[in-house]
Amino acid sequence: MSTQPTKTPDADVNSEFTSYYLHRATQEFAEDLDKVRTAEDFKNDALNVLVNALQQGTAMFSPEEQRRVVESRGAGGSKA
């Protein structure tokens, strides 16, 4: 009797991938984001727009790609 590995639910994969993606994006674009955030015309209510814009980047990845990234990170740490 063999047991199948437990499959992560799609909603969890999406949530974990979004978190990972935002973490990586903010690391990679830290200088640029600081410039935007400290600009004189940047208002606090624009923060939600900025976060939503960054989250839109996750749409470039198929559910299968997202699952592959999330599951590889679970098995191997911080792989991309």
From TrEMBL:
GO BP annotation list: ribosomal large subunit assembly
UniProt-listed InterPro entries: Ribosome_Assembly_3, Rsa3_C
TM stretches of this protein: none
Primary site of residence: nucleus
Keywords from the UniProt entry: Nucleus, Ribonucleoprotein, Ribosome biogenesis
One Gene Ontology cellular component annotation held by this UniProt entry: preribosome, large subunit precursor
Keyword Lyase: no
Domain Ribosome-assembly protein 3 C-terminal: 17-62
Function of the molecule: Required for efficient biogenesis of the 60S ribosomal subunit.
The protein's name in its UniProt record: Ribosome assembly protein 3
Organism, scientific name: Schizothecium vesticola
